[in-house]
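Attaching the record inline, Q. Sequence:
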Amino acid sequence: MCGIVGVVSNAPVNQLIYDALLLLQHRGQDAAGIVTQQDRKFFMHKAKGMVRDVFRTRNMRALPGHSGLGQVRYPTAGDANSEEEAQPFYVNAPFGIVLVHNGNLTNAAALKGELFTTDHRHINTESDSEVLLNVLAHELEGATRGAALGPDEVFAAVTAVHQRIRGSYAVIAHIAGRGMLAFRDPCGIRPLSLGRGADGSVMLASETVALEGTGQTPERDVAPGEAIYVTLEGAVHARQCAPRTQLSPCIFEYVYLARPDSVLDGISVYQARLNLGKTLAQRVVSVVPPSEIDVVIPIPESSRPSATELAHLIGKPYREGFVKNRYVGRTFIMPGQGVRKKSVRQKLNAITSEFAGRNVLLVDDSIVRGTTSKEIVQMAREAGARKVYMASAAPPVRYPNVYGIDMPTKEELVANGRTIEEVRQIIGADALIYQDVDAMKRAVGELNPAVLGFDASCFDGVYVTGDITEGDIDRMNQQRVPLGDDDMDTSRLALPNSTEA
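Structure, as predicted:
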C-alpha cells in the first residue's frame, strides 16, 4: 500500500507535491520521494523515512519545475532496507521516464524474466514497480518506433501494458519533455482520482483528501483500465485501454486504509464506516443484549465512525477509553541488553475511569493476527472492566492479500481455520462479534450503485483478477517484508493508522 501524486501546473510544484504527500502519509511511512521536471531534465530526491524527515529546505530548492510526482511507500515485498527501492523510479530510454506505483503485480517474477531474456532490459532491485516501469518503457518504445510521441502512441503502449501485467496497479508517470501519464488496473483495485486547480493545474492522487487539501477540486475517479495523458500545457486526454473492465475496488480501503475524509470511487469513506457500524449493531444485539453493555469504546482510530454509529443505535454511551501515543520512538539496543519487542501498551493507554466496574464493548475495524486484540482486552480488564466484549467492523480475515496490503501469511491469521468461539478464547474476550461478509459489501456498496463488487479476498478468498493460485500466494509470501526486531505490530496490519498524517 502506497500513496502517489502527480501534477502538471504553470507554477513551481515542489511545495504542492510535498503538501499532497503529507496528506497521504497514512498510506506509507517507510520512504518518500519527489521528482520534478524542468527543461526536459528530472530532479529527484528520495529516502527512507517520513515526508517531514526526508525533505529539508535544501532538498526542496533542488526540485525546480512546473510538473512532477511523488510517493510515500509502505513496503510489502522486496528489500525494505534499501533506499534504492524508494520511489520514484527512473529509466532513461525511451525518452526518459519516471514512475510511481501503488499496488502489487502478481506476475512480477515472470515479467522480470521476460524483460531480461526478450526485452533486453535490466532490473536492478527486487521491486515490482521497477518491473512495471520497464514494461511501460518497452511498450512506449514499441508504440513509437522512433516516431513522435502523442496521445495515440501513449494509449497504445498502455493497452499493451494491460495485456502483460497482472495484479493491482494505480500508476503515475512523467515522460521527459512530453507530459504526465496515469492509468489504473482493469479491476480498479487501488484508488486514483483526478482534480484541477483554479490556476489550471491538473493533479492525480490516491485519495481526494490530497486534492482538496492542496486547493484542487476533485473532478472524477480514473476508471478501471483507463489511461489519462496530460500534456505539459495542461491538455487532458483520456481513453479506455483495457478490453474488459470491472470496478472492484479493495474494500479494505473503506474499512481501514483510506482517510475518512476521502471519497473513493464515489463512496465517502466516513459514511462507509458509519454504515458498517449500523450493520455491526444488528450483529451485536443478536449476540449480546444491550442491557449487558454499559459503554461502547473504540480502539483508535479508524474504528471511531463505526463505534459511534453502533453506540447510537443500541442506545449506549460512546466513550473514548484509550489515549494514543503518536510519538512512539525506536527501541535502542545497548550493550548487554536483549532485544525488546515493542508492546501495544507503548502506543495505547487506558483511561481507568471509563472501564472500572463496567461491561465494555470494544469496537475495532478488523482483527488480523489477534495479538493486538488480546493485549487490548487484557488492558481493559486491568483497568477494572467487569466484562469485555469485542466487536469487529470487518468480517474474519481468513485469507492472505496479494494486491498490495501487507497481510500476514495464512498461518498467522488468527481466524484462519478457527471458529469464532476459538478466536474469542484466544483473545480472551467474553464475547466476540464479527461483521458479516455480505452485510459489509452491501453497507459500502449501497453508497454507489455503479460499484457492482469489491475485492474482499482477505475475507472471502475470492481474488477478483481470477488468476491467483496457492503457488502464487506461497511465492509472494516468501517476498514479504518481515517485521524487524525494532518494529511494532501496532495494529491490525502493522500499518500506520489511517488518521495519522
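Residues 326 and 347 are 7 Å apart (CA to CA). The chain is about 30% helix and 25% strand.

More tomorrow.
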